[in-house]
UniProtKB/TrEMBL annotation:
Source organism phylogeny: Eukaryota, Fungi, Dikarya, Ascomycota, Pezizomycotina
UniProt name for this protein: Uncharacterized protein
Native species: Microthyrium microscopicum
Domain of life, per lineage: Eukaryota
Length: 297
């Protein structure tokens, strides 16, 4: 990929890598789309969309883990099942989404607002997409920011879609906005491994219980909750090693089956994971973990 330039994704679509100043934060992002879907402001050769145009295509917006490896690897590049692949770089010296460290994300509010404003205000200037079909993916530290800050504060702006939380989750850290509508319309899937990091073995169940409790308070039945909130940690491996081999390859394995996990008609089948991953959180609030590696997130 060409930094601050134009490249080609694996599927042949165009990748725009650029930076926008949003709320005084430099937000670098990559978006994959057919050339014709881009607008003139993007500078993409072949851009043909009108300045105010939209399109049927949605987006899958991925927030990387601490250090930015998944921004570099770009596992959701290309257009997958009508979703443009978008990845965003954390505006933090350590490349931590939400800033801070570990489970304490001191800039979570500001970073969540920046991601919202990137999608709502900046990206429509660059590419034509369907604002009503924007999904999100968190990886490790990106999942902490998504579940701790973005879902409770900003997901009200993205109804009837979903969030995939890979190898990490936090209970909401800020007041929940429009909780009933968000909880009843947002699909949330927690994907982890048996040998997750020790602090995440604590925080993931806390997040699961918190979000399930909100669903109950919103009047959802156990059956309804099970369709919207699901969990799996059956892969044998360490942090994000969903293929039992490595961090980046594990994330790629799950991302390859995104539609089977998150989108309407999802089957729960992930190539490389033997069991159906869409297990209801009801009764599975405390997944069984094995021995954790010594390091913490």
């Amino acid at each position: 990929m060409i930094p601050q330039g134009i490249s080609q994704a694996k599927d042949g679509s165009v990748v725009l890598d650029t930076t926008a100043m949003i709320n005084n934060l430099p937000i670098r992002y990559r978006v994959s789309a057919p050339a014709a879907m881009f607008k003139a402001a993007s500078g993409v050769p072949g851009a043909a969309a009108a300045p105010d145009a939209t399109s049927p295509m949605g987006m899958n917006v991925l927030l990387h883990g601490d250090g930015g490896a998944s921004f570099v690897a770009y596992p959701n590049q290309g257009v997958q099942n009508n979703l443009m692949g978008v990845t965003v770089l954390a505006p933090d010296p350590n490349l931590f989404w939400g800033g801070g460290q570990g489970l304490k994300r001191t800039m979570g509010v500001q970073h969540a607002q920046a991601v919202n404003d990137l999608v709502q205000k900046e990206m429509p200037k660059m590419v034509a997409f369907n604002m009503s079909n924007v999904y999100f993916t968190g990886v490790s530290g990106g999942s902490l920011m998504m579940s701790g800050f973005f879902i409770p504060a900003q997901m009200k702006n993205f109804p009837n879609t979903g969030v995939l939380l890979m190898c990490g989750a936090l209970a909401p850290q800020v007041p929940f906005q429009d909780m009933k509508n968000v909880i009843t319309s947002t699909t949330i899937h927690y994907q982890s491994t048996t040998n997750e990091l020790a602090n995440l073995q604590m925080s993931i169940p806390q997040a699961v219980s918190a979000y399930e409790a909100m669903a109950k308070s919103a009047g959802m039945t156990p059956e309804q909750i099970g369709k919207m909130q699901t969990i799996d940690n059956t892969p044998q491996g360490g942090h994000c090693e969903f293929d039992s081999k490595g961090f980046n390859s594990g994330i790629q394995l799950v991302q390859n089956s995104y539609k089977n996990i998150m989108q309407p008609g999802a089957t729960g089948q992930v190539t490389g994971i033997q069991t159906n991953v869409l297990k209801t959180v009801v009764g599975n609030e405390k997944p069984t973990f094995g021995k954790a590696p010594r390091r913490l997130l």
